[in-house]
Amino acid sequence: MPDSHLPSVDELLSIAVSALGGSERQGQITMVQAVQKAIDDEEHLAVQAGTGTGKSLAYLVPAIRHAMDSETPVVISTATIALQRQLVDRDLPRLSEALAKELPHEPTFAILKGRRNYLCRYKATAGWPEEDEQDQLFDPREVSATGRMVQRIQEWAEETETGDRDELVPGVSEQAWRQFSVSAQECLGATRCPSGAECFAELSRARAGEVDVVVTNHALLAIDAMGDLPVLPEHEVVVVDEAHELVDRVTSVVTSELSDTSVLLAVRRVGRLIEQPIADQLMEAGEDLKALLAAAPPGRIDELPQVLGLTLALVRDTAWRCITALGPRNADKDDPDKAGQRKAAFTALDEVHDTAVRMLEAYGHASETDRAEVVWLDAGTDRRPPALRVAPLSVSGMLRDKLFGERTVVLTSATLALGGTFDGLAAQWGLGDSKSWQGIDVGSPFDHPRAGILYVAKHLPQPGRDGLPQQYLDEITELIEAAGGRTLGLFSSMRAAKAATEALRERLDVPLLCQGDDSTMLLVKQFAEDEATCLFGTLSLWQGVDVPGPSLRLVIIDRVPFPRPDDPLTSARQRHVAAKGGNGFMAVAANHAALLLAQGAGRLLRAQDDKGVIAVLDPRLATARYSGFLLGSLPPFWRTTDPAIPRAALKRLSTEG
After folding, report:
1. CA atoms within 13 A on the CB side of 27
2. Which of 176, 199, 222 is at the close of a domain?
């Protein structure tokens, strides 16, 4: 029960809002009370809170109060670095200062990331054993881009107090950074490492154990919940912000990959630690895998071909022989150099062996309903070889047992109620059949029907696979001319964004930027600073763009963003739901599309005075049988299919400035 000596969350919120120069908003008050009740009742809560609600404050206030009351930290998990930085650099410092006099002590906070994000002092001081020469992809002394990055990291290593990779601005490549970092599996452990007493990752964990609020990311949250060893400090309450991203981020954590490159790395790591003939067997198995993957068609692999089964078994067995030949895992524990070499070898071999086992076990089920995982072949790129991947068809069971089963979880985002209900995401989180959760929509401070128009171009043809039809380019041109630029174009693919950019640069007399022309951060800055400028991009832009004011009056979405029909994971999930008697299309494809549409539409209104138009060129949003579900996922903009109405509105706005 709450401590009666502490101020109530309503009082704390009022003090915080007053100190920060804001004004009370009903949605924020409703949310702060709901979060406090969920914590008191130990009940999970999903909160949809529209842009401008002030949801960060609405969950931070009860989180801090609970941390003070229970003397245990509260974990805040986010999907993006941008939100982590906002919390740690802006929201928490200001809030802590505002509440300091009302609480037993000034609230404290820290950010915690995965071990790979921190400099390894042992590796940086050359104490770490050298990789096999073949594994040196470059010469650090070479005057090259990577060589210069390595030199910059070495200089930074002498002065950094945190070892956090994000301190390095501009950033460095993965190739350069991995010379100075280790994974959790490769780490010797603080007690065995010569640099253990001053390890940046361990110091960061220690700090996190002493604060009231720990800010982390969804991936580390998943690793902590599902791993054998805890990564985060003990906690009773988790707040998952950007909760619409949780399932995808957790899926990424539990997806494994096998390629000739990963096998070759294991061979190199085991190097001269075992007899050469045994290592050669694994090398030959890797070469067999390479030849097979180069010849096989990419895509989902529903039935295990005999030749692939034999190759995976060969990789599994030869990796196991290498593991056995390495001997006891704790050998050489008193010699850090040898221990580091052995740990790196075991890590690479375990990954190869366990992934091959997992892929083989994905087959042999009596029916589609018994299948738990999907295996597919990724064709790779010029810089990345073909690879086999395996992922779970659902992470709901893992989340239900490992995350929601152990603690109270508050999930929040501007987009959670898809089709007007929380049921779709609740099922993906594993809460579908649970009675121990509630979902609330605290609304938005924006007057959507008065501030924005949702225009669906019902008269256009359905989008095809052969690029943007000419009618779409004509429509985009007329809308942008009416708006006087000021347009964010969100396209279903990079190819479509580039094609539209090339075609329209010749037809428009306003500046037109395209994702990829420069860093996204610089493009968005340029877009925001020049009102006439337009910015075109793809799905990755949808959640990252925050441009309040007159620079953004029009958001164009080229098509309903269904997953690609040949996407291995979503198509397998769709089929799996159907095999169990559900509607696979609605549960997977329509939910996916609704979420992205809502995120895209959410770019328009970012401040109280913002106004404008969302233009969806895909007529299916007005005509298809599932259109009601998709429309029910969007804010309540004023809707029209008449092309004259949005153009007239945009022209009026362009004259207003």
Report:
1. 19
2. 199
What is the SS3 assignment for 95? Answer: helix
Within this chain, do residues 314 and 418 fall inside the same structural domain, yes or no? Answer: no
Residue 15 CA to residue 24 CA, distance in Å, equals 10
CA distances from 431 to 13, 400, 405, 436, 577 (A): 29, 7, 10, 8, 16
The C-alpha atoms of residue 337 and residue 325 are separated, in whole angstroms, by 19
Same domain, 417 and 452: no
Average pLDDT estimate for 138-165: 79
Q: Report the distance separating Cα 143 and Cα 325, nearest Å.
A: 40
pTM of the model: 0.91
Is 70 within a domain? yes
> Does residue 41 sit in the same domain as residue 131?
no
Same domain, residue pair 580 and 434: no
CA atoms of 311 and 550, how far apart (whole Å): 59
Cα separation, 137 vs 123, whole angstroms: 17
Amino acid at 392: P
Q: How far is CA 121 from the centre of its chain?
A: 28
pLDDT band of 187, cuts 50, 70, 90: confident
DSSP per-residue letters across 48-75: E--TTS-HHHHHHHHHHHHHHHHTS-EE
The average confidence (pLDDT) of the chain is 91
Rg of the chain (C-alpha set) = 27
Query: Which range marks the domain in which residue 614 is found?
Result: 448-656
Q: What angle do CA 617, 622, 628 make, to 5 degrees?
A: 125
Q: Is residue 22 one of the residues assigned to a domain?
A: yes
Check pLDDT > 90 for residue 124: no
25: left (phi over 0), alpha (psi -120 to 50) or beta: beta
Q: How far is CA 160 from CA 122, 163, 168, 174, in A?
A: 15, 6, 10, 19
Angle at 35 between CA 33 and CA 41, to 5 degrees: 100
CA distances from 267 to 183, 195, 271, 275, 346 (A): 18, 27, 6, 12, 11
> Which of these, 360, 350, 366, 364, lies nearest to 388 by C-alpha position?
360
| 560 and 507, same domain (yes or no) | yes
Q: Which of 562, 581, 566 is nearest to 626 (CA)?
A: 562
Residue 397 lies in a domain: no
Q: Does the pLDDT of residue 190 top 70, yes or no?
A: yes
For residue 609, how many other CB atoms are within 10 A of its CB? 10
Query: Residue 387, Cα to own-chain centre: how many angstroms?
Result: 22
Query: Residue 206 falls within a domain, yes or no?
Result: no
The answer to whether residues 436 and 452 belong to one domain is no
Type of residue numbered 190 = A
Query: Which run of H or of E encompasses 337?
Result: helix 336-361
Q: At 413, phi and psi to the nearest 5?
A: -175, 165
